[in-house]
Amino acid sequence: MREEVLRDVERAVVALNVNGETRQLLLPSHKTLLEVLREDMQLTGTKHGCELGECGTCTVLVDGKPQLSCLLLPVKLQGRAITTIEGMAIGSDLHPLQVAFAELGAAQCGYCTPGILLAASSLLEENLRPTRDEIREALAGNLCRCTGYTKILQAVELAAGRMP
Amino acid sequence: MRVVGKPLPKVDSAAKVTGRALYADDIALPRTLHCKILRSPHPHARIVSIDTSAARRIPGVLAVITGSDLPVKFGILPVTQDERALEHEKVRYVGDPIAAVAATEEEIAAAACDAIAVEYEVLEPVMSIEAALQTPKDERIQDYGGPNNIHKFVSLEFGDVDAGFERAASIREDVFFFQGNTHLPMEQHSAIATYVDGKVTLWSSTQVVHYVHRALSKVLELPMHRIRVIGAAHGGGFGGKTDPFAHEIIVCKLAMLTGRPVKCTLTREEVFYAHRGRHPVLMWVRTGVTSDGRITAMHFRSALDGGAYGSYGVASTFYTGALQTVTYDIPAYRFEGCRVFTNKPPCGPKRGHGTPQPRFALELHLEKIAHDIGLDPVELKRRNFVQPNTLTVNWLRVTSCGLVECTERVIKASRFHDRAARPGHGMGFAISSYLSGAGTAIYWNDMPHSEVQLKVDRGGVTAFCGAMDIGQGSDSVLATIIAEELGLEPADIRLVTADTDTTPIDLGSYSSRVTFMAGNAALEAARKMRAMLDEAVQASGRRIDDVTFEEASVLAEARFGTLTSAGSYTPPKIAGPYKGSGVGPSPAYSYSACVVDLDADARTGLIRVNKVWIAHDVGRAINPLLVEGQVEGSVYMGLGEALMEEQVFRKGLHKWPSMLEYKSPTFLDMPEIETFIVETIDPEGPYGAKEAGQGPLLPVPPAVCAAVHDALGIWIDEIPVTPEKVIEALRRREKGEPARYGPQRFPPIPYPAPIKVEPPSKKDAAPAAI
User: Fold this and answer.
1) What superfamily does domain A3-87 belong to in CATH?
2) Rounded to a whole number, what is the distance in Å from the CA of A52 to chain B's nearest CA?
3) B448-569 shares the fold of B24-124+186-236+241-274
4) Residue A136 is nearest to which of B267, B633, B667, comparing CB atoms?
5) Is a pLDDT exceeding 80 seen at residue B762?
6) What is the pLDDT of residues B554-569, one digit of tens each?
7) What are phi and psi of B7, to 5 degrees?
8) Residues B267, A84: C-beta atoms closer than 8 Å
9) What radius of gyration do chain B's Cα atoms show?
10) Which of B117, B125, B418, B596 could form a Cys-Cys staple with B44, CB 3.0–4.6 A?
């Protein structure tokens, strides 16, 4: 039996900057960023496929770099800028990647989409004219079972072409 | 056509790209309890006792249930009601559910599961088809079927097969094996239930709210009107969320006991145990051909490794023998099928349900026959193609058929007959067909398979339909059809779908049925609404072209009162005159042809697919963007199955129940796909549309194997084609053995004598154009 659940867990006050808003939360120290985003901050746009760091579904940006939120601890993320899918659009204006994904049908069931959009936005921040192989490499950690990846690659290229 | 045929974005695309779509695990209700399920660590064991007392004493645990709380058996098919939500007598695979806990925290629920003491009497597990055919050491897995662990036999003969073989100039026999694999949806199954005012409400990631509704009513012993099942936004199915599942029943029961919402989200490991994926199938096929390559007779045998429960398995068994005749004109055909129980997670329907395995065997077998008689494989297949508007020897009705055009498109585009000859390079060709919805329902009834209601109010249109959009875009198809008829845009149509309280019946997203069936129901409802609007406008003395939709709806509401219309779809009764004819008929069949180009490395055995050309006869593309998406996704999944995906077991345990170890193609593995949409305008499909979601997977594995043979001169008669198998086949060739990797033999199976079925007469076989 897991005796530890009966003990008081260690908790910490954590200030998290998510999508430009900083919030203070009292969290069990072992709680992952994925859990905190979804359960404590109601940011359910971040999805999970394995909770073991294998599928890329829970990708968020930490200081602009794609990271797996299921493997991160909020206690170690104070002072870092976290971006989730909810922070990708500016107000009601969708990011060019979001527009292109919608236009080309790059989201089928849509479950892997938030993670892939964030990973792709990080790529385009660094490299506005990526080759197809560079896109494949950048997104290789994100699995998708619906699309066969084809429409996703086309959508990233379409968005890149439209971005100034 | 104004909106039909246009590559418009899906109606739910904004919700999907912003993270707003609410999947089952995203739904948070006040006071929700977390549920965890205790599962069997043994593949086969009798349960001697279950002691939950320690678990119940843990603070934060509100309920613990076992099989005695949910004793009623259920199952997707009426003939195999063999599952319990929780087993209290016997467990049949590692992962079989035994007990469930509802607690205030997930960790407390997990700890409570650990605190449940179960005493087992371990039994000898049965882990292979061969073992299941033998007398069991301890006892049979299920107490029905037989002999031994055989679940189901099918034995049918159409026409005079022996005479057909006598007429043949050459006869060939082959044995093939298609390893099992799983759906691996990105979303883990999840369900959340409430119990308020004596009524259960369940939100679930299911493909079929209606079948979950039926199972809940049976097991919870509540009338259907006291249960509401709502399909949450869906994170991927591929057939894997088509059965009613234990966790769906469990959260309802726990909500009833605690009076609080209860949620259960499976871990990824548990998703591998829920399974219902591709059956491993061993196949033997014998075909006779004339000297010019015309098929004279075929005998096909299958043995399916079904796992521990029935699931859709009876249907799967029939499907391994049903659709061979829908692509090739086979004048005499014998099919013997057999499904066995083993101590593994139950197999069921995965994209292509029971037909990718025989399609793989059939295509590769014909490829070999072509090599035997010195004929181009494409030409041999073409000579045997079915003709449109015919009845097959097993009484399946073929109407629109784009096989010839699909073949021409991919052969020409890929320059198949002018392919580069360099070491290790190869190209392979294969074709296939699939249903546009099963012609018969899973449980016997005469009601429509799909219904759509429309409401028009102050210019707004709302469509109600039980269909579940699982990402394929069925909501968009419904909106497009209704918008086309009413002169609107798809985005103008509000949709209420997959909710058993508010929407009329639809049998759900499986067997590629939604565009065809719900689409036809939507078409009827929209045309009725259009007629009312037109009549009201004409009665007002104005011209239809001069009024807006909003004005027309006001005129019609003034004339008729509340504006509603309904449409429904029932497939034609076209099953043949024999027992077992219910599996295979469809109101229309899609057709596909595919060419795979690859390089195979003789040193490492690694295969690099360079490009796939695929042409798909979808009847009509209501939205070509969505059709392409389905075709590309099917090719992807077909390549995964052909090259790497396999659900295998070692010592009773799943060998790799994780996404890292269960290999699936990544961005780096996927080749370029060139898709050709072929439109044959089916006489019964909505605007002529047929299916696109499953058929295009089917030709991919055999085309890969044909290409490997073209590249290296070896036959890999077993899916997946891993580097180890390639190397082994090459090694055998070097030793002077046959250059082949695959099963050596088909075991003796005591199939019953076939039911002899008279094929349709010549008059029946060429029905008048519909």
Assistant:
1) Beta-grasp domain (3.10.20.30)
2) 9
3) no
4) B667
5) no
6) 999 999 999 999 999 9
7) -80, 65
8) no
9) 26
10) B125
Tokens encoding B11: 């109606």
What phi and psi, each to the nearest 5 degrees, are found at residue B288?
-105, 140
Q: Do the beta carbons of residue B665 and residue B596 sit within 8 Å?
A: no
Q: Round to whole Å and give the CA distance between B332 and B319.
A: 18
Predicted confidence (pLDDT) at residue B129 exceeds the cutoff of 80? yes
Q: Structure tokens of A31?
A: 């709680």
> What is the CATH architecture of A96-162?
Orthogonal Bundle (1.10)
Nearest chain B residue (CA) to A89: B18
Task: Convert the pLDDT of each residue in B256-272 to its tens digit.
Answer: 999 999 999 999 999 99
Look at residue B314 and give its three-state secondary structure: helix
Using one digit for the tens of pLDDT, what is the confidence trace for B203-212?
Answer: 999 999 999 9
pLDDT for A164 equals 86
With CB atoms and an 8 Å threshold, state whether A101 touches B17.
Answer: yes
What's the half-sphere exposure (Cβ side, CA atoms, 13 Å) at B674? 14
Q: Provide the pLDDT confidence category of residue B85 given band limits of 50, 70 and 90.
A: very high
Q: Is the separation of the CB atoms in B595 and B612 below 8 Å?
A: yes
Which of B53, B113, B186 is the mutation pick for testing A, counting most A CBs within 10 A? B186
Distance CA B640, CA B635 (A): 9
Q: Which residues in chain B have their CB less than 8 angstroms from residue A6's CB?
A: 58-59, 111
Contact assignment for B267 to A89 by CB distance below 8 Å: no
Q: Report the alpha-carbon distance of residue B569 to residue B506 in Å, rounded.
A: 9
- For the four alpha carbons of B284, B289, B294 and B296, in that order, the dihedral sign comes to negative
- The answer for A 113-152 residues in CB contact with B (under 8 A) is 113-114, 117, 135-137, 139-152
Burial B279-300 (b: 16+ CB within 10 A, else e): bbbbbbbbbbbeeebbbbbbbb
Q: From 3.90.1170.50, 3.40.190.10, 3.40.50.261, 3.30.110.40, which CATH number describes the B24-124+186-236+241-274 domain?
A: 3.90.1170.50
pLDDT in tens, B567-622: 999 999 999 999 999 999 999 999 999 999 999 999 999 999 999 999 999 999 99
Please name the CATH architecture into which domain B281-440+578-744 falls: 2-Layer Sandwich (3.30)
HEC profile of B63-124:
EEEEHHHCCCCECCCCCCCCECCCCCCEECCCCCEEEEEEECCHHHHHHHHHCCEEEEEECC
Residue numbers of B between 43 and 82 with CB closer than 8 Å to A = 54, 58-59
**B626: which chain A residues are within 8 Å (Cβ-Cβ)?**
105
> Sign of torsion, CA B435 B436 B440 B441?
positive
The predicted pLDDT at position B36 comes to: 98
Contact assessment for residue B523 and residue B567, using Cβ atoms and an 8 Å cutoff: yes
Residues 641-700 of B with CB under 8 A from A: 658-660, 664, 666-668, 670, 672-673
Record: contact B268-A51, CB cut-off 8 A: yes
With 80 as the cut, is the pLDDT of residue B403 above it?
yes
Whether B23 sits inside 8 A of A47 (CB atoms) is yes
Q: Is residue A54 less than 8 Å (CB to CB) from chain B?
A: yes
Q: Per-domain residue ranges for chain B? A: 24-124+186-236+241-274, 281-440+578-744, 448-569
pLDDT tens digits, B41-55: 999 999 999 999 999
* SS3 assignment, position B715: strand
Whether the pLDDT of residue B18 is over 60: the answer is yes
According to CATH, what is the number of the domain B448-569?
A: 3.30.365.10
ipTM of this predicted structure: 0.97
Q: What is the mean predicted confidence (pLDDT) over A23-37?
A: 96
pLDDT at B769: 43
Amino acid, single-letter form, for residue A137: E
Please tell me the predicted confidence (pLDDT) of residue A7: 65
